[in-house]
Amino acid sequence: MDFSTQLESLRQSLSDDIVGHVTEVLRNLSSTERLNRPVLRLELFVEDADEQRNDDHRNHGDGVVHAARRPLVSRVFDLSGTRVPTVMTPPSMASSPGVIPEPVLPPLTPCASDSPTPCLGSQQENTRRRKGVGGLRPARHRAVVVEDVDSQRQMQVPARSFPKRAKVDDDAVAALQEASLGKFVAGIWEQIHGGVDLDPQSSLEQWLGAAAGSTGNAAVRASENTDRITPPGFGRLPGMAGPAEASGSFNRSNSFCRRVTQASRTCRALEVIVQARWVEHFESYVDMVASTNPSMSKKKCRKAALLEACQDFGWAEKDMRNRMRIWAGYNEIKDAGGWVALVFAGNGIYRLCKYRVGFDAESMQTLRALRPRIEVAADTLHPTWRQLLVVVGESPEPRFTGHPHDWVVSPCGSDPVPLRSTYLSRDPLFSFQHLDESILDASVWGDDDPRWVPPPPAGATACPKKTAFTCHSCGQAQSEFPKQNACYCFPPLFGAQKRAAVQAPVQVFRTSNGRNNGLQALAPFDRGTAIGEFVGLVTSGLQDVDVMSSSSTRAGGGNRTYQIWQGRQGNFTRFVNHSCNPNAQFQSIVWMGLERTVLVSKGISAGQEITVDYSDSYWRGLAKKCLCSESCCRYRTGGL
Fold first, then answer.
1. Which domains does the chain have, with CATH numbers?
2. How far, CA to CA in Å, does 39 sit from each of 27, 31, 206?
3. For 57-207, where are the E strands, in sequence order?
4. Residues 267-323: pLDDT tens digits?
5. Could you tell me the CA-to-CA distances from 35 to 112, 135, 452, 454 in Å, in that order?
6. Which of the chain's termini has less CB crowding within 10 Å, N or C?
7. pTM
8. In the chain, what's the furthest Cα-to-Cα distance?
């Protein structure tokens, strides 16, 4: 290898080793921040390797280097520029977690006084101690600290720390809420079985008559005849009365407010019906415009029909579009659930059609299956509701007549069948009379009701009032008058707040496992709520038939046993099936001196079948199997 090649190799080695090492040391050097004008001094010596090892051995431990020799080359570089703000790496690199960006140093500039003069030694420099430099250096820039999102911090832990709440997991699946369609259907059942009276002939005449009477000059009309303001029979809200007349005024205001509320409810139902029908007329008009103008697209035809409707209504286009979307929801509900779903929808229909939560094919199919059941309840409880449909050209005649429980519905959505037809195969002479109160079998008891219970002895109750009847359970006074009654054991059935038995939100349905008919809850019944009273023929001495047996205490002592038979007369409690895991039970209560049997809920959801436990006395010796299909069934193989 020639001399020039050796020099080139030496230059490359010096460039790679010395320059790279010095640059790395300067990058991590933080001591320059304490100097006013830092400089880098480079000195070059040529020595014998053996002599250098001996010098190192002699000087080991004192840390002093005696510089008696003169360097061949000495250079000085200004480091003041390294204290300017460093240039950071691009954001894409620095933003990664756990990465510390490396600073970029500016180029070094030689000082003006740099000179290769080798005379640098002095007594002061010979005795100066070199500062030891380690390999570890603090980072010049703050590292990015990545916190664990699952970590928990607690500033102070007391000696007795209470149990902490479970950490809220934002990614957890939310609890299932009732679908909007379920709320909508629940509102329909509530309206049908509530106190709404949809009598269009009387309500609309009163409402329209009041509106007609309020036109014209009010001052002239008031001076001529104030009776013209309201139609006959509608009345007026009475003014404030004194204490002597407060009772009668309050009753009249109650009657007037009830009639106005019912008339307003009827007009609201009529409004929804007309708006749903208008959507059909709009679509028909768009088709007509498209057929007469083949060159126009369907979108342009709808636009033209919309602008024409805006002109007739006097509304802005945006307002018209918003209303049309809601009205289109009314029409979709009508197509699935029929007109009855619109009339008895309640106030929730506007919100449902505005936000359209649950407007899917599955929900509409569910509503379509409920349509016959809703129509049965509406036609039998509100026979005149279809008269509202006359304004849209529909027939006012009801499809179903009679008592609500004269019809047996099907869960699959098929048409209801008469109750009698479901028993003809067992009893060709079957007939059933629906009762609101139990009737006494005069051939057995005469006029002596066996359910009569003598009042409790004096001082046994805490009732301060002297009344004829006292509750045996709560000890409070019982009366049919609200001012005198203080017993609220079962207010839906007894007392001033009692409801008619036919308005209980239940339906008779056809079971699918051979149990014939059953009773289904249309609305939820909270635990302890009375569903209905077990009524029928109060008799005695019947055998081999299903009866409710009970006994009462005689006035002179002893018990008297009686039976309640529902074979030909009764109410919906006749259709309650047995279950070894029931959701209801029968409970006795004494009301107005007579023992009553009440069907009480244990907690029933809407759509569930209502069941009770017939008890062991019913199944003892009975030659049939239980079909409740419960895992805890006690009578799979027949009676005991």
1. 3-93 (no CATH), 154-163+422-619 (2.170.270.10), 183-359 (no CATH)
2. 14, 12, 105
3. 73-78, 109-110
4. 899 999 999 999 999 999 999 999 999 999 999 999 999 999 999 999 999 999 999
5. 19, 21, 112, 111
6. N
7. 0.67
8. 145
